[in-house]
Automatic annotation (TrEMBL):
<dbReference type="Pfam" id="PF13561">
    <property type="entry name" value="adh_short_C2"/>
</dbReference>
<dbReference type="GO" id="GO:0016616">
    <property type="term" value="F:oxidoreductase activity, acting on the CH-OH group of donors, NAD or NADP as acceptor"/>
</dbReference>
<protein>
    <submittedName>
        <fullName>Putative oxidoreductase</fullName>
    </submittedName>
</protein>
<dbReference type="InterPro" id="IPR020904">
    <property type="entry name" value="Sc_DH/Rdtase_CS"/>
</dbReference>
<comment type="similarity">
    <text>Belongs to the short-chain dehydrogenases/reductases (SDR) family.</text>
</comment>
<keyword id="KW-0560">Oxidoreductase</keyword>
<dbReference type="InterPro" id="IPR002347">
    <property type="entry name" value="SDR_fam"/>
</dbReference>
<dbReference type="InterPro" id="IPR036291">
    <property type="entry name" value="NAD(P)-bd_dom_sf"/>
</dbReference>
<dbReference type="GO" id="GO:0005975">
    <property type="term" value="P:carbohydrate metabolic process"/>
</dbReference>
Amino acid sequence: MGSAAQEARGALAGRVAVVTGGGRGIGHAIATTLAQQGADVALLDLLPDVAAVADQLGESTGRRCTGVLADVTDADAIAAAFDTVADRLGEPDALVNAAGIANNTPAHETDPAVFRRVIDINLTGTYLVCRELGRRLVAAGRPGSIVNISSMSGHIVNLPQPQAAYNASKAGVAMLTKSLAIEWAPHGIRVNSVAPGYVVTDMTRQVIEAQPERSAQWLRRTPIGRLGTPDDIAPAVAFLLSDAAAFVLGHDLVIDGGYTIV
Ligand code: NAP
């Protein structure tokens, strides 16, 4: 297809994308942008009404969208979810891992089960879903692309909240991304990550509402003078998934309004 025709259809036309955590927040904004750029999109989430959210996305974008309930920590559930997506939309060749949880407790008071849960969802979950797409693409000899949502917390220690488990999980996601990028480059599968700064979603809204002095501190340390929105993150993810980023591998793109520079 010529580049003008491709542009007209959208940079992601013909792609089938899975977005974990796509039911709300950053994942949902990403799913919306991918559909707007021509991809058919599956939302893989724990949100009970994920099917209805996907139907609405399909209506608003004109793309085929589907919602599948699955826990990213459950390898069998992920395999079944990918089978469902393949039946409904065709075999996926794009993946965004946005499912994640945060935890703010002092390290010396954190229940080991809580620490493990954060690592299990944010890091192991990301690996398990990458693994599922990777093994399907390698077996089929097909190319694809993956973007994992890491965090600026994989680069810096956030203040003032204590979140050692979260920070460690996100540093792990960035290194996992680089490792998979190198292993799968010979198979034509590109893996990158995007590292957001503070973005207003349900995850951060609780803090903004309950502890305004905490979010005021975030704001003071953000040179651009505002917190991010999910729409600040989504276009970069779409770019990294697309062929426009054909030579970009293992990159962790920080999008933080300048927070980590100063
Ligand atoms: P959010 O609004 O809380 O959304 C997270 C989504 O992930 C929810 O739909 C949630 O479903 C889903 N999820 C959680 N655990 C899951 C599991 N085990 N299996 C499947 N789905 C699961 O969070 P967000 O702020 O959009 O964050 C999205 C990603 O960006 C996360 O990885 C987060 O760490 C990262 N991030 C966020 C910020 C920020 O400032 N917001 C900054 C840097 C990085 P349920 O609600 O049904 O559990």
